[in-house]
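Could you help me review a protein record that somebody else here produced? Here is the record exactly as it was handed to me:
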Amino acid sequence: MNKRNEFEVNPIFARSGEVRRCHKYKLSEAPMLPETAYQVVHDDAMLDGNARLNLATFVTTWMDPMAMKLYADVFDKNMIDKDEYPATAEIEERCWRIIADLWHAPDPEKAIGTSTTGSSEAAMLGGLALKRRWQQARKSAGKPIDKPNLVMSSAVQVCWEKFANYFDIEPRYVPISADHPTLDGDVIGDYIDENTIGVVAIMGVTYTGMYEPVQQIAAALDVIEQERGLDIPIHVDAASGGMIAPFLQPEIEWDFRIERVHSINTSGHKYGLVYPGVGWVVWADRALLPEDLVFEVTYLGGEMPTFALNFSRPGAQVLLQYYAFLRLGHEGYREVQAATRNVAEYLALAIGQMEPFTLWNHGSDIPVFAYRMTEGHTENWDLYDLSNKLREDGWLVPTYPMPDDMSDVIVQRIVVRNGMSLDLADKLLDSLRSAVTFLDGLDSPLPRSGRTTTTFSH
């Protein structure tokens, strides 16, 4: 029997690649059969948690079978290569124009937008446009441009801290409190001066899922302009709420209906219902995106404009976004998001009725809610211990401190996504009740050193 036939008849776990250890940090000398390499990687990945039970992440973990088929058909497309893939480029434009219309751009034909690798890149592009417009205005007025600052809540997602660090901008964090759990315009004037490039408002705070009242923030900025002559634009970080509010809370004015809102970002791979990674950023008018930020590049024989922090990136997720838009339409998105929010509110109500927990919010904005330990319930365990106990049943539920000025408040947060059914919600509640019963039965406090804690997922 020749060597090839010997490999073909061997059971998969008896092949030479399976019965020897593989090098982890350097290339092996000999190749493997594709089936063997697949099995090795597949078995490593089995040690990950079950994505459907990951209640820490906002990122989509389920798409329907036809989306999976489309994904397999188009995973080789490079989004940046618009000369070679003009149909994909056209579909990208259709997507951001659909989003611009969804966000009430005054004239969608005058809007401008782009896809990105996710909402973090999209947020940074929005921030760069704010900075460059501020610089241009300051130069025209003969004023210095060396001390730009950006005003935002202390509960912003970490991408804004990165943006400020990477692009030499002073971040000015307005602290949240029990009385002001979001940035709401209160005391915002104390943080604004002539060097402020803009204000970030969040539709779906990462810590709690709550909406920041963009209209209220804009009204506070209107007063500042009247009193001090400072015209401060808003960028809305709608990483999650941008694909929730238009369908579930259309009466809330947070988008381009507010003139002061220049740009908005969202995640296609969160409540846009697409696998990672794709994000979107849209400006209400192309005049709000400085032309000198857009590069005209020659690539593979074609000239194309590009505004991005990345260059080559997958086009498949853009096509999946368009598939989702076609597949669901406005009514389909409303039904999916409403079902998801119903599960979040169901869970919040049940958990809020449990003696150990006090709700921070109820999941009525985006399908996300947080809760803390009821004061005085016990000294024997805390929410970190509860996270570890829930992990034994496969549930990943993050525990973390609130931002500065409230860092003594520890909360757990649950993110409900498409694919979290009421049946799964009941299983989570069963696990939660069982974990509480076990922890409440402890005779002494669990050790506070060397324990495993659940990390906070953005």
Q: What stands out?
A: Residues 450-458 have pLDDT under 50 and may be disordered. The chain is about 35% helix and 15% strand. The longest strand covers residues 196-202. Residues 68-324 form a domain with the Aspartate Aminotransferase; domain 2 fold (CATH 3.40.640.10).
